[in-house]
Amino acid sequence: MRKTVSILGSTGSIGKQALNVITDLSDKFNLFGLAAGANIEALKEQIIKHKPKIVSVQDEKAALELKKEFPKLEILFGREGLEQIAGNKQNDIALIAVSGTAGLYPTIAAINNNINVALANKETLVSAGSLVMKLAKEKKVNIIPVDSEHSAIYQCISNKDKDFIKKLIITGSGGPFRTRTLKDMQNATVAQALAHPKWSMGSKITIDSATLMNKGLEVIEAHWLFNIDYKDINVVIHPQSIIHSAVEFVDGSVIAQMGIPSMHIPIQYALTYPQRCKGIESETLSLTQVSRLDFEEPDLNKFPCLKLAYQSGKSGQTYPTVLNALNEVAVEEFLNTQIKLTDIPNIVEEGLNKHNPMPANDLNAIIAADKWGRDFAKNLINKYLIKK
Amino acid sequence: MRKTVSILGSTGSIGKQALNVITDLSDKFNLFGLAAGANIEALKEQIIKHKPKIVSVQDEKAALELKKEFPKLEILFGREGLEQIAGNKQNDIALIAVSGTAGLYPTIAAINNNINVALANKETLVSAGSLVMKLAKEKKVNIIPVDSEHSAIYQCISNKDKDFIKKLIITGSGGPFRTRTLKDMQNATVAQALAHPKWSMGSKITIDSATLMNKGLEVIEAHWLFNIDYKDINVVIHPQSIIHSAVEFVDGSVIAQMGIPSMHIPIQYALTYPQRCKGIESETLSLTQVSRLDFEEPDLNKFPCLKLAYQSGKSGQTYPTVLNALNEVAVEEFLNTQIKLTDIPNIVEEGLNKHNPMPANDLNAIIAADKWGRDFAKNLINKYLIKK
Questions:
Q1: Which of B168, B171, B255 is the best mutation test for A, with the most CBs of A within 10 A?
Q2: A388–chain B Cβ distance below 8 A for any pair
Q3: Are the CB atoms for A148 and A119 separated by under 8 Å?
Q4: Average pLDDT in the A110-114 region?
Q5: CATH 1.20.1410.10 holds for B316-388
Q6: Would you call A276 and B155 a contact, using CB atoms and an 8 Å cutoff?
C-alpha cells in the first residue's frame, strides 16, 4: 500500500532529497502537499514535476503570484498553510524539514491529527521537546528522526532492547575547525565556516557544525526523542563520519549504525519506516575502503557551544528554547558578517545568564521564551559588531 | 521468572564463563545439568560450588569414580549423557559449549524437546547446518549464537529488519600472523600460533584463528543461522576486534555490534535473551580510549583455509562436514607438533578434492562424511610429518 506524504520545506536540502526518494520509490508513495519558504522559482519547478495536491508558501504575496500560474492548485501561506498541509488527514506521514522554530506548528498540527512525523527540524524538539513528545505519546504518533545521528540511534534500538539502554553515543565529524586553533576560529570567514568536511547541508546547520552547537542541539533532541538523561548522552568526535551514532546497552554491548555520509539514507528510512528499500543512493559502505575510523573527545574550550547546550538541557525549563533562539540570531548575524564566529557562544552565554526560566510545558511559554531570546540577541549584536 | 539452564562443556572456556554469568545473575537462573569431558577435577569443584541436579562426563570410568564422591547425584556419561541433559524438559535453555562434532547430538536432543539452544559449538552448524536449522524451524526453537561474531549479527537484526538484509560483514582480528610473512607461518611453533592477540579461547579455536579457518567456519555457520548466500557474506580483518560483526541492509544502512573483546557479553546475551542485564563483566567500551579502528581485506594467499571454507560452503552437500573433519584432525596433529601450521590447508584441500559428496540432510550421511574426513586426514599425516 502506498503512503501519502507531505513535504514541508521542499526547496531546502532535505526537502529536495525527500522528493528524490519519493520519485525513486514512486510505487510506494503518493505526494500530497509541498510547503516552501521564499524560493518560489524552485517551488514552481517542483509543482510542475511532482504535481502536489496542495502547496503553501511563506507569505500571501507569493501565494497570489503562484495562484496566477497554477489557478487550479490549492495554495496556502504562512503558519496556517504549514499547519493545514501537515495536519491534513490524507497524510500518512508529514516530513517537517522547514528550518527554525517555524517547524514547531506543523509538527504539532500533524501529531494532533494522528499523522506520523518524519522530523528533520531540530528546533522543534530543542525548543519544545517536553510538549511535543508528550503529545506524540498521547496521540500514539511516531516521531521518526531524519537527522543522521538520531536516525542512527532510532535504527539501533530494536523493540526488545528499548528498556535496556545505558547510554547514547552521538558522533560528529568535528566540523571544519577540528584541527584548527582557537585563533583560526576567531578569524574565520563565513566561507571557511561553511566549508564542512563531510556533510553538505544548509548554511544555518553548517555554521552550527562549525561551532559544535549542532552537537549540542542534537544532545537536547536525543534527550527528548529517546527519554535519556543528559549524563548518559556522550558526544564523540569521529572525523570520517562513518559511524553515525551508537547506543550502549546495560550489558556493555554497543549497537552502532554506519554508512557513507549521505542524508539520502536517513531521509529514505524515515519515509519507508518500518520497512527498508533499495533506493537510488543506497551506496554500499566498504569498511576496507574506508580503512580507518578515528575517535576523540570534543574540545569544550574550543567549542563552548557544546558545553552551553548541555548546561541549558540540564537546567531544563525554557533554557533550551532560549539557547536555540539566541543561537539562531547569532548565526544569522555571523552569516551577515556582523559578528565573529567565536562570539556566537558569547551571545548565547550572556542570554542564558540573563534568562528568567519558565516551565516549558505550554506553547505560550515556549513562544515567549523564544521571542525573549531573539530580542535579547538582537539587542546584544552592537556589543559584538565587527568594526569594518 | 528464573530460567533453568544446562551447560554442556562446563569446564571449557565458554562453560566456565557461563557459570560465572549464572552465578552473577543468580536471581535470573537455575542450574539444571553440567556436562564435562575429561577434566574431572574441575567438574568436581563445579559440582560442589554450583550444585547441579545432574551431570555427565565423557566415559563410564570417570562416571563411576565421580559417583563414589557424589553418591546422591545423578551421573551420566557419553553421547547419551549429553543428550539426556540437553534434552531434559526442565531446561529453558541448553548451552552447547562442548567442542567438536560431539556438540551435534545434544543440540538435536534439545531442539527435539523444544528447548532453546545457546550454541557455542561451531561444528554443529558447519557439519549439519541444513538439518539443524530445519529442525529448529519445525520445533519453533531459538538457536541463539554465542560466538562473538554471530551474536553480533543476531543483535544487529531487529524483528522489523530481518527481511531487508543485503549482506553480512564478519570481522576478524586476523590472528597472530596478520602482520607476519608466509614464511613465518611455515615455521610457526605451537606457542606462536596459540598467542592470539585479542581473544583468550581454547587451543583448537585459537589455531583456527591463526589459519583464518575460524573465519571460514564462521562464514558457513552464518550462512545457516541467518539464511544468507555465501556471496553476501564478507570477511573483513579488523585488528582491534571492537566491531564484532555487522549487517548491511538493502537501503545501504549498516548496523554493527561493538564492545570490548570479551566472550562474557555474548555468553550472557545468549542466556538472558531477549533481555539484557547488567553483569559483572559488562565493561564499558570507550571509543575515544580505543581511538582508532582499522579494516583490511583478508589475504587469501596467506590464509587459504578461508578460501577453502567458502568453496566448501558454496559446493554444499557434505563438503563443509568434511572440511570441518579434515581440519579438526589436522589442527590436532599440529598441536601435537606432527605437522606444520601451513600444512593444515594442504590436508584440507586434498581431502575436499577426494571427497564424494552426499546430500547433507540426514544425520547418517553427516556422520559418515565426518568419519570419512577424519580417516582421510589421519591417513594423510605421514605425508606431511615433520622430520625430527
A1: B255
A2: no
A3: no
A4: 98
A5: no
A6: no
